[in-house]
């Protein structure tokens, strides 16, 4: 290892409210591409039990004082500031061996994921401390005893033990949902690339946006930390299956039923459809994607393609095409403009990858690449952890074990031939559970059969074809709105997936009681809870409006003339509204019926205030159901109740959700829905 005299940065941990250096001799961390000592790391002597306690008491208490939207806004501000200062992260990332192009999903991708969470949370969750989930369940005939699920933040700490390959994304995609949920985080990056995570955490803490204790960082080993986790804490782990299994069965984790999410080895497959032979766009897309996944981040991605499943008839063509691309891949220093693939994270990892290639090669032949001889366009293979891409071919994939079980965490993949879709599905399943697989086909039958065949073994499946060639986000990219994780060998965890990810850090409880008490818990009106009727609620600005403000309208009779007029005016002359005999022959109706949309329109006519007022706009309805037919002569009445109020930050309005219940003269509910409106914070409007 070459030390050029540059002073290596001694990393610190941020625990219990201060940056602290570990005691004793620190471990040197080498620059992946040059071998220079880049940083020093040690967490010896830190008080880990104290850190957990400080996070729970100081961070958790402070976070829970805020609403879901408050916390999302903190992340938005942090994400924007990180994005503005990202250049220094890119510079630091070079030491991990990643080219700037490889660093994009880590840095821009990580910050973008955080911003997506911040925005989705404010759009999809209420601005509240408690998150109601699902409908109110009637538990008694008279509606006096009801139930609903609610989610509240865990009162512990989220401990995130992360892998070396995504030092930024790996942290941000996990702290974003946890912090929105209201749970403080202790981040433990993999030592090898902890310098980049440490830099980002420094910048986040300097912003002073998060409350004290919301974010802590451990650079180095976690010591006895796991001995102190409780049933209110959550532990997430990304890395090798071996370490994961050890931590999952840690006595404190087992005894305290600690939530443990694991993402480990995954032998992801890319499957070329039987229809996608040479000359088709899908064939070209497949070859490009396999080559890209093998070489992006030098193949050190949990989602990288490891198994290349191809129809036997096209195996030779696929290998030739891949060899042509892989042989052209310029391997070298990550900051060299010619470089297409940078270095592995360390010389030690390179030795590990070589050893695993040897294991796979015992059951397969190498058809491209020379694992022990490195060809470089720049850099020094003795000092930097460089390796050229290695492609193998396994002639007997059903009896071979290694290509389905050995994850060579580098630019390595194995081609395996199949005969028919059933065989392709069976081969994909030999991975025993994967994060992702992709199927390249333009045939709807193949797509449906493959997905149904392999879905139970996969967290995500990407279908690639000519129509999404330009827009596809690709095989390897986990996306904030979609789940990431896989069963079996992949660890059995699930993360992100939009607001599902937030809920992983919250407790779901079923609350049972009267509508009045339930409404007090959730802050949302529930049918049967008290309501107040004074002035028309549409005359009230957000400053005056209260949950439970209600109007019960006059009645309006539906006539044949109304239905005839509506039918001819809108063009909706469906027979059930127009033809008595045909309507009577319909099993649902006894006679001609009013249009559902006529009912909703009359309902609006009954409850709106025509004059300009604080209700600025109606932006939709949710859960609209027509529950009973409305016949000529029936009379309709509307009960409209303010159900949920969501003030919007930085605007002059907020969103108000109204429970809208339309009944007939027999008090039967004929239509039920939520009306969504924008309501001014004050009226008249003031900027
Ligand atoms: P490890 O499992 O060794 O490390 C993963 C994380 O766990 C690191 O933060 C590590 O910290 C930490 N850790 C290790 N031992 C303990 C322990 N006893 N208690 C608490 N934390 C611990 O994996 P590596 O990152 O070294 O990668 C090794 C292999 O794992 C790769 O070659 C690859 O095969 C696989 N891997 C899989 C990934 C995936 O997502 N599928 C991602 C990354 C790696 P420290 O670094 O300080 O030891």
TrEMBL record:
Disordered, as annotated region: 468-492
Keywords annotated in UniProt: Hydrolase, Oxidoreductase
Aldehyde dehydrogenase domain boundaries: 61-457
Residue stretches spanning the membrane: none
A GO MF label: oxidoreductase activity, acting on the aldehyde or oxo group of donors, NAD or NADP as acceptor
Signal peptide span: none
Name assigned to this protein: Oxepin-CoA hydrolase / 3-oxo-5,6-dehydrosuberyl-CoA semialdehyde dehydrogenase
Native species: Salipiger marinus
């Amino acid at each position: 290892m070459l030390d050029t005299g540059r002073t290596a940065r001694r990393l610190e941990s941020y625990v219990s409210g201060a940056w602290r250096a570990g005691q004793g001799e620190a471990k040197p961390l080498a620059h992946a591409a040059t071998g220079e000592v880049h940083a020093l790391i040690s967490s010896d002597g830190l008080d880990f039990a104290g850190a957990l306690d400080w996070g729970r008491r100081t961070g958790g208490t402070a976070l829970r004082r805020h609403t879901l939207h408050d916390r999302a806004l903190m992340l938005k501000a942090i994400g924007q500031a990180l994005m503005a200062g990202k250049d220094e992260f890119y510079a630091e990332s070079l030491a991990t061996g990643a080219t700037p192009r490889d660093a994009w999903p880590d840095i821009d991708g990580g910050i973008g994921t955080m911003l997506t969470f911040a925005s989705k949370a404010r759009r999809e969750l209420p601005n509240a401390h408690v998150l109601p989930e699902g409908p109110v369940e009637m538990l008694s005939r008279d509606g006096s005893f009801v139930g609903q699920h609610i989610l509240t933040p865990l009162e512990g700490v989220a401990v995130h033990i992360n892998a070396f390959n995504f030092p930024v994304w790996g942290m941000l995609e996990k702290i974003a949902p946890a912090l929105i949920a209201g749970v403080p985080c202790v981040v433990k990056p993999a030592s090898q690339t902890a310098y980049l995570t440490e830099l980002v955490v420094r910048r986040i803490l300097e912003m002073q946006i998060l409350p004290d204790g919301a974010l802590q960082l451990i650079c180095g080993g976690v010591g006895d930390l796991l001995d102190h986790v409780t049933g209110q804490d959550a532990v997430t782990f990304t890395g090798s299956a071996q370490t994961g299994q050890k931590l999952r069965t840690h006595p404190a984790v087992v005894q305290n039923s600690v939530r443990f999410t694991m993402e480990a080895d995954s032998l992801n497959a890319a499957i070329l459809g039987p229809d996608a032979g040479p000359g088709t766009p899908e064939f070209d897309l497949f070859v490009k994607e396999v080559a890209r996944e093998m070489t992006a981040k030098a193949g050190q991605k949990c989602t990288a393609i490891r198994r290349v499943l191809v129809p036997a008839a096209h195996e030779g063509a696929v290998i030739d095409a891949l060899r042509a691309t892989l042989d052209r891949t310029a391997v070298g220093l990550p900051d060299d403009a010619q470089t297409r693939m940078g270095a592995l994270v360390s010389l030690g990892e390179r030795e590990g990858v070589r050893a695993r290639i040897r294991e796979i090669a015992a059951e397969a032949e190498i058809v491209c690449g020379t694992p022990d001889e490195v060809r470089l366009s720049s850099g020094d293979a003795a000092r930097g952890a460089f390796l050229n891409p290695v492609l193998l071919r396994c002639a007997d994939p059903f009896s071979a074990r290694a290509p389905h079980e050995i994850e060579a965490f580098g630019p390595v993949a194995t081609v395996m031939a199949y005969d028919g879709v059933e065989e392709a599905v069976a081969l994909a399943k030999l991975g025993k559970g994967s994060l992702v697989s992709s199927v390249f086909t333009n045939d709807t039958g193949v797509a449906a059969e493959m997905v149904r065949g392999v879905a139970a073994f996969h967290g995500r499946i990407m279908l690639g074809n000519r129509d999404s060639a330009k827009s596809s986000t690709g095989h390897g990219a986990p996306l904030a709105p979609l789940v990431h994780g896989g069963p079996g060998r992949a660890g059995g965890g699930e993360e992100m997936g939009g607001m599902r990810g937030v809920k992983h850090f919250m407790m779901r409880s079923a609350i049972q009681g009267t509508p009045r008490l339930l409404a007090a818990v959730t802050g949302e009106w529930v049918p049967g809870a008290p309501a107040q009727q004074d002035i028309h609620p549409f005359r009230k600005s957000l400053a005056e409006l209260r949950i439970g403000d209600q109007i019960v309208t006059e009645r309006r009779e539906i006539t044949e003339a109304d239905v005839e007029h509506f039918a001819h005016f809108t063009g909706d002359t469906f027979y059930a509204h127009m033809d008595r005999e045909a309507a009577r022959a319909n099993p649902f109706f006894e006679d001609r019926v009013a249009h559902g949309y006529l009912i909703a329109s009359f309902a609006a006519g009954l409850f709106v205030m025509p004059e300009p007022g604080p209700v600025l706009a109606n932006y939709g309805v949710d859960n609209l159901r027509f529950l009973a037919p409305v016949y000529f002569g029936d009379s309709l009445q509307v009960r409209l109740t303010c159900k949920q109020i969501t003030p919007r930050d930085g605007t002059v309005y907020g969103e108000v959700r109204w429970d809208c219940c339309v009944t007939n003269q027999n008090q039967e509910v004929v239509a039920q829905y939520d009306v969504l409106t924008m309501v001014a914070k004050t009226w008249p409007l003031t900027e």
